[in-house]
Prior knowledge:
alpha/beta, 26% strand, globular, single chain
Amino acid sequence: MNMIRSFENRDWAAIWRIIEPVLRAGESYPFAPDITEEDAYKVWIEIPSATYVAVDKGNEILGTYYIKPNQPALGAHVCNCGYIVSENARGKGIASEMCKHSQREAITLGFKSIGRNNLWTRKT
């Protein structure tokens, strides 16, 4: 059984290794494929309301997701989530676990609904 917990600063290097190839591919997120690590940190960690990691028993990060308002002002009650699973953990239900977790967290954080989600788990 995996655990999903809140992001901790020590997690960033592992998260970057997971999200960098997906962002560079330019197929599922609206960020420039040449995004810098600093800018990726801003969009994955600083801007969202919260960021989480899925970890195994050894605390290895298997995936990550963020949750944030989908739009400002009148659209802030709807959340948006972005999910990425590490390449070596794809096809093992990690994305499903994170999606279920995000639905509970959305309620906890006061969101009223969830907008269109990005889910990147494709096996390559």
